[in-house]
From TrEMBL:
Species this protein is from: Xenorhabdus yunnanensis
Domain of life: Bacteria
Record's protein name: FAD-binding domain-containing protein
Record's keyword annotation contains NAD: yes
Classification via Pfam families: FAD_binding_3
Length: 372
């Protein structure tokens, strides 16, 4: 089959590589709107099960990831001058750029052509010269938006605002949640080291706090200076940085969750975040994208001519496999959206509630200590 992918993110790349591994006769081309060696964001958390699943089909790619993966041993929660540590939740962290570059190189090794600086739109898909188009252009997918009546898509926008930053402050080898109170409301950061000299630092606040603080009148530089002051006790003089490779992504955003009734229409199929997404506070969006790619590639394994039944199977399987993850993500997102009503509670009680928020961990599995 001739296949084109819109978007060289984890979903489009993993799908293309695995499809080639299953059947090297497929002819695959990827269109990516950004330049090569460019991606949004900073570091990601991953979990061992999804790496294992991927390694079952492509052990080489996972070996290459592992060269750059760091292990986060504990979760540390900093609030009201106290630090509470939860043990037993081992996470893996990797640079998003390194992961994408490994995948792009691997795709090219399989003869998959990636056209950079090539943004596709729905009108480019009228009479495409291909048998199948993979729409893997992320949660704000322009193509899905333009064809939304075909996919019957509903967009859920989060209430809070977030900013995905990086910093040279390396914290420790743990995942850190930092909560800071200001005159205009609470700010918190989800942060962790993901490579030797860099950490991810995602700042979040409620819309009310965002308005009261006056961010709508602050430029990028003023915003960063303000946030460095808010978190100064944890940054030890290290600056906060925007991803200047892709500056337009630096501003405050609301988290977007698309929900589509139909994941495919007339030789076009949604994949990864273009189909569905999970709130960043459970760090599983890439796992979701890779999981979609594995299943779609598997469904097309024995398919030399496109039959929509394969695509329907893919949708049903992924909807059911990701059901619990979506519930956990919604619980977690809503916990952070309602935080102002319980953030002033006792720090230990608050931390336990934070750790149990998604419903994936039970109180019996929790091991929590007050460090200081
Ligand atoms: C703040 C934040 C933190 C996160 N942290 C984590 C984490 O710790 N762990 C985790 O697993 N996940 C995390 N995620 C989620 C993760 O980044 C995504 O779920 C994952 O990247 C989805 O992969 P994708 O390939 O579907 O989409 P994307 O990674 O968004 O890739 C889409 C690609 O399509 C390209 N594109 C867009 N439009 C077009 C067009 N018209 N034509 C051509 N190309 C186009 C884009 O440039 C991009 O390269 C986080 C997300 C956010 C917002």
């Amino acid at each position: 089959m001739k296949i084109q992918c819109i978007g060289a993110g984890p979903a489009g790349l993993v799908f293309s590589i695995l499809t080639k591994i299953h059947n090297h006769h497929h002819d695959i081309v990827i269109y990516e709107r950004n330049l090569s060696d460019v991606t949004t964001g900073w570091g990601l958390t991953l979990s061992e099960p999804i790496l294992q699943q991927l390694a079952n089909i492509d052990p080489i790619i996972v070996e290459q990831f592992r060269l750059h993966i760091l292990t986060l041993n504990h979760v540390d929660i900093h609030i009201q001058g106290k630090t509470i540590r939860s043990s037993g939740q081992r996470l893996l962290a990797i640079s998003r750029l390194k992961m994408i570059n490994i995948l792009r190189k691997r795709a090219q090794d399989f003869g998959i052509k990636i056209h950079y600086s090539s943004s596709l739109e729905a009108e480019d898909l009228i009479n495409p010269p291909t048998d199948l188009t993979i729409i893997s252009d992320g949660s704000n997918s322009k193509v899905r938006h333009q064809l939304k009546n075909k996919f019957n898509t509903h967009i859920h926008e989060g209430k809070n605002l977030y900013l995905w930053l990086g910093t040279s402050q390396l914290f420790n080898n743990n995942f850190n949640f930092i909560f800071e109170q200001t005159e205009t409301g609470w700010f918190w950061a989800h942060c962790f080291k993901f490579e030797e000299n860099c950490s991810t630092f995602i700042v979040e606040c409620t819309y009310e706090t965002w308005i009261k603080t006056g961010f709508s009148h602050m430029d990028e530089k003023q915003t960063i200076i303000f946030l460095e002051k808010v978190f100064h006790r944890h940054l030890y003089g290290h600056p906060l940085k925007i991803n200047d490779i892709c500056r337009e992504k630096a501003y405050w955003r609301r988290f977007v969750s698309p929900i589509s009734k139909y994941w495919h229409h007339d030789k076009k199929v949604l994949l990864g975040n273009a189909a569905h997404s999970t709130h960043f506070s459970i760090g599983s969006g890439t796992k979701l994208a890779i999981g979609d790619a594995i299943v779609l590639a598997e469904n097309l394994k024995s398919c030399n001519e496109l039959n929509s039944t394969y695509l329907t199977h893919y949708q049903h399987r992924r909807e059911s496999e990701s059901y619990n993850l979506h519930i956990a993500a919604r619980n977690s997102q809503s916990w952070f959206e309602n935080i102002e009503s319980f953030i002033s509670n006792d720090p230990l009680q608050f931390s336990i509630s934070l750790l149990l928020r998604s419903g994936r961990l039970s109180s019996d599995e929790l091991s929590v200590i007050l460090l200081e």
